[in-house]
Amino acid sequence: MKLQWNQIDWKKAEEQVNRIQIRIVKATLEQKWRLVKRLQYLITNSFYAKVLAVRRVVTNKGKNTPGIDGVLWKTDRDKIHAVQNHWNFRKFKGKLIIQPSRKSLSKITAKVSELIKNSRTSKQDILILKLNEITRGWANYHHSACAKRAFSTIDHRIWEMLWKWAKRRHPNKSKHWIVDRYWKTHKGRKWSFMTDKQILFLLMDMPIVRKGQMALNKNPFLDREYFENRAKKHRLNRKKAICSNRAAQIGYYAL
Asked: Against a cut of 0.85, is the pTM above it?
């Protein structure tokens, strides 16, 4: 029998995750590095750690905004599926690296592809608006992960899909005519898919803002003030990064 979302014992989940976190802190302070590695592996593969992460996503202020692959985790089935498919943990030179999973990349690609195929007769304005809803949400979700390569990959895939979309709409027109019709040079950037009202969001313009190194003697269930201040600092750093990146400096998205 499969576990249902409403059957999860949240008190037990928090207690188990908290217990592992305390053990990691204790092992780190005692410099028991092999034990630390085993415990890190245990928590990154913990079902309870994942369900708590999903619960945090579906209960925050942006819970009704499409973002992860353009999908809202509303039903219990969606939430359990997210636990099983939206995390990809790797290690590089002893450091934990979190990247968008291959399944997540495949799903957003399929979502964008379906939208573009179903928009053969849609106005460019409408298509851009719908694409931006998907890509902005996905980029926001992965903004603190090692996602630059993934962002570049999705941007390239979308460009190829839009080129095919434009060619199908005008099979008898030349390539130069199609380029002039749908892509412009805007604020010094070439190949901007845009109209007078809308401009396509590029995932490469989402700044990656890593969260600062966490104090090893802190626990999220025991030191809430520390983690609240840490989250506040991250939000401030992200706001600064968004305002200071190249796209913001040249006013790329201001039409």
From this structure: no
- Per residue in 114-141, pLDDT (tens digit) is 999 999 999 999 999 999 999 999 998 8
Residue 193's contacts (CB-CB under 8 Å, 6 or more residues apart) are 124, 128, 159, 162, 182, 183, 199, 200
Locate 89 and state its tokens. Answer: 């943990």
The span from the CA of 34 to the CA of 57, in Å, is 32
Query: Residue 46 is encoded by which pair of tokens?
Result: 């913990």
Q: What is the DSSP string of 100-142?
A: --HHHHHHHHHHHHHHHHTTTTS-HHHHHHHHHHHHHHHHHHT
Residues 110 and 205 in one domain: yes
* 203/227 same-domain check: yes
Q: Which of 5-14, 61-70, 217-226 is predicted with the least confidence, judged by mean pLDDT? A: 61-70
